[in-house]
């Protein structure tokens, strides 16, 4: 079996694996770290025995051993940390989904991300009810739209975003 690293655990979080899979991977990582630590302890004990048998300065010999064979670092991962990491990943993925919102209305595809929603709101704020403005659609086509269209599309985009936020 290959050794599991902490990066493997982080990658599982990044890829959106479910909590049970991440916890299983984390346990494998902890087991690997435990095995490495036990192996290091045995090697250090052997080094101490060697120094004693050969009348070497034990402290100096072990100091040299420690310098060339650093003890594996124990990494403690709390459930809180795991929960925070998974929450941050969820927020990142949700932001990516918001960036890809597209609203279909009257055979036109509008960008519906937050920036586009803000532009629609500003345009509606300063437009008269009968005025039309040029608008660039998701496919970069330029069309004329009125205030009612932008209000409706902005409302739909906001509803799509709200649906993503409550998932």
Biggest sheet record = 2 strands, antiparallel
| Distance separating the two termini | 37 Å
Helices, by number, come to 6
Structural class: mainly alpha
Low-confidence stretches: none
Going across the biggest sheet, name each strand in turn: 1-2
Describe, in plain words, how this protein is organized in 3D.
This protein has 167 residues and is mainly alpha-helical. The chain is 65% helix and 11% strand. A two-stranded antiparallel sheet has the order 1-2. It has a two-stranded antiparallel sheet with strand order 3-4. A hairpin with a 5-residue loop joins strand 3 and strand 4. Helix 5 runs antiparallel to helix 6. The longest helix is centred in the first third of the chain and has 35 residues, at 19-53. The protein is rod-shaped. The two termini are 37 Å apart.
SSE layout:
Elements: H1 6-14, H2 19-53, H3 58-68, H4 79-99, E1 102-105, E2 108-111, H5 114-126, E3 132-136, E4 142-146, H6 147-165
Antiparallel strand pairs: 1-2, 3-4
Helix pairs in contact: 1-2, 2-3, 5-6
């Amino acid at each position: 079996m290959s050794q599991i690293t902490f990066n493997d655990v982080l990658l599982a979080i990044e890829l959106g694996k479910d909590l049970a899979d991440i916890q299983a991977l984390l346990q494998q990582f902890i087991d690997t770290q435990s095995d490495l630590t036990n192996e290091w302890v045995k090697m250090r004990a052997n080094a101490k025995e060697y120094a004693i048998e050969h009348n070497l300065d034990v402290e100096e010999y072990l100091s040299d051993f420690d310098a060339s064979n650093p003890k594996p670092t124990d990494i403690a991962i709390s459930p809180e940390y795991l929960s925070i990491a998974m929450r941050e990943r969820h927020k990142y993925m949700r932001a990516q989904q918001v960036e890809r919102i597209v609203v279909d209305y009257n055979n036109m595809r509008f960008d519906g991300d937050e920036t586009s929603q803000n532009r629609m709101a500003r345009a509606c704020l300063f437009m008269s009810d009968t005025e039309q403005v040029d608008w660039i659609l998701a496919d970069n086509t330029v069309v004329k739209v009125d205030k009612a269209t932008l209000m409706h599309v902005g409302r739909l985009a906001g509803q799509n975003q709200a649906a993503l936020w409550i998932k």
